[in-house]
Amino acid sequence: MELFQTGTDPWGQEILIRISWTLLTVAFWAGIAFILFHAIYAVVWKPKVDHGSEPAKAPAGIPDKVVRHTGAARMFHWVMAASMLVLLATGFLPIVGLEFAWLNIHWISGLILLLCSLYHIVHASFFLDFWSIWILPADLGEAVQRTKRQLGQQVTLGKHGKYPLDHKLYHLAVSVFGLLVSATGLLMMLRIDTPIIPRNDQLFAEGTWGVVYSLHGFAAVLFVTLTITHIYFAIRPDKLWMTKAMIFGWVSKSDYLAHHDPEKWKVGSK
Ligand code: HEM
Asked: Is the beta carbon of 112 within 6 A of some atom in ligand 1?
């Protein structure tokens, strides 16, 4: 399987152009395979989780509706989701054969995604509980327990704070590859005519542009897998309580107590 597309420069030397679009097919089918595997595994094999002993009674002061996402956080999420879907459609539909004027819609959505990400970084750093989404040394115990469970063992998985380990891993991947696709996308705007950045093809040598295009393409195809799996989890019946929270902002007290450790995600904290 070819991983890259190559060409020749004016001196006849082989240069990198971009990734091979076979990787798009691989990323798509990897997402579908993951869904099938997970759906079957969840029904036939996944051992029941033991969350340890339940607290004798719920701690005092927990409201019936526990705020999970503020209005600003929800707005960020949905604008980002819309721009991501537009970027995927405008980036990949022409590659799979649906020709249309994609480029302007693409870079404008790209700038919207970038502005959203910058807004989110400031909002999360100063107005949200910044550390709640990052993998910390304390998460290693959960990683070991989850791996054992994946291997079929019955484990006691303590309740987590606001975000469990798998959410933190997903967020890490989206952050890293989101920044990569945005930084390379910004550079690629120098190769096209836009009213925002003056064209400057000469900034890099052709081979270096090939590296930029390859990084953009690699992060872009990864987002195909990441988006497919994200939507799958969002519409799974057992996860709908979280999806509803991204629409309405809150989770019920019973869902909060069933999934979260009140010591680790203190209600009333942001
Ligand atoms: C996950 C999000 C994104 C996806 C899936 C995506 C996908 C793609 C794909 C498949 C291409 C064709 C690349 C090629 O021909 O080698 C492309 C080109 C391009 N992308 Fe993105 N992209 C994303 C984000 C962005 C962002 C954030 C920006 C701008 C800030 C951007 C700006 C561009 C530009 C300017 C081109 C055209 C370069 C050219 O034709 O010379 N993209 N994108």
From this structure: no
